[in-house]
Design a protein that fits this description.
With 385 residues, the chain is mainly alpha-helical. It is 57% helix and 6% strand. It contains 21 helices and 4 strands.
Length: 385
Amino acid sequence: MIDKFSDIDALLNGLMKPDKQTLQTLFDKKLLELEMALTNACKIIDIQPRTLKGILSGTQKLVDITNLAKLANFLQLPKEQVVKLYLDTVEEHFPTDTITPDRINFIKENFNLAVLRKSGLIDNITDFAHIEQRLTARLGLKSIFEYRKPNVDIAFSSGNFKAENDLTRAYWVNAAKVAFKEIDNPYPYSRDELIKLVPQLRWYTTNVDMGLVDVVKQLYKVGITVIFQQSLQTLQLRGATFSVNSKPCIALTNYVGFYSTVWFALIHELYHVLFDWEEIKINKYHLTDDSNEQLSVREREKEADDFARGYLFSQEKTEQVKRFINDAEYVAEFAAENHVHSSFPYVFAAFGSNNRTAWALARAKSPDVSRAVELIDMTCHGQKW
């Protein structure tokens, strides 16, 4: 049973608490007691009115210590108390808190600051107060000490994994998770609906400006959230699949820089959602540790790659079009017949080769990736479908 009388007592005690003591309140009280004007008080204390106002308000950082002694004598208070009250007031206007050594060490141990500066998240690598503010804001933390490296429960579509990229990878993963939690997809995940949807996705590649966004909307309705997240220097990731609130979440990135590879990453990750989802949910899918798995991570990545390749533009189709790769009209017609954007044959023909001419042609034919991805984040955050 609620004790309403104790609640009332607590409220009354709160109301009866005296106001916080400051030099200003004590000085004003003294003037009332003496029925004295400010100018007369300044004459008695022997302090200029402007100087006195600066001391009482805490806006004057440099002060003659004898003035504080004079003020203590006028207020009939111990000098130590007046000095403390003055310093407290000054600190309210000019905070002296600095980032502590343990916070600096924590940031250095958990973040690759050079990479984050390169990405534009932070302005420099020496102003740790600024760095902490940016990191906590981006990662949704109240304190930098809340930051934790993620468990390896994520299926990655990656290039060569390097241990020295661990800090950057951890930040990238946590930043993506924050975005997924903010979006908070309300739709339940349905594998059956995803299976129905997959055969229809390839055609959307032909619409550079709206195709990927339209696919993201359709995936959202079957419980799969997709975001596009900036690539970070040295981190060779095309995408990643997460389990957030027990729903699949996919983060795409622009690692290679081709329009077709963003789509490739999406289909690759959807393969993981279709066939590795239960393991991702229970933290049994590991990026580097394949010794305890019946099927190694490397083999699974190859399976996901093969699936994406076969779905978008198979090896057989690539071999067929290679002979006519310099015939732009033929390539465009062939791509249209196979329901993919005309840039796909060029990129897939260049895969696995060191032919600079082939890669230059692929680069020239690839549309600007930003056209395809710039509306994804806005769409996820700004609409309910």
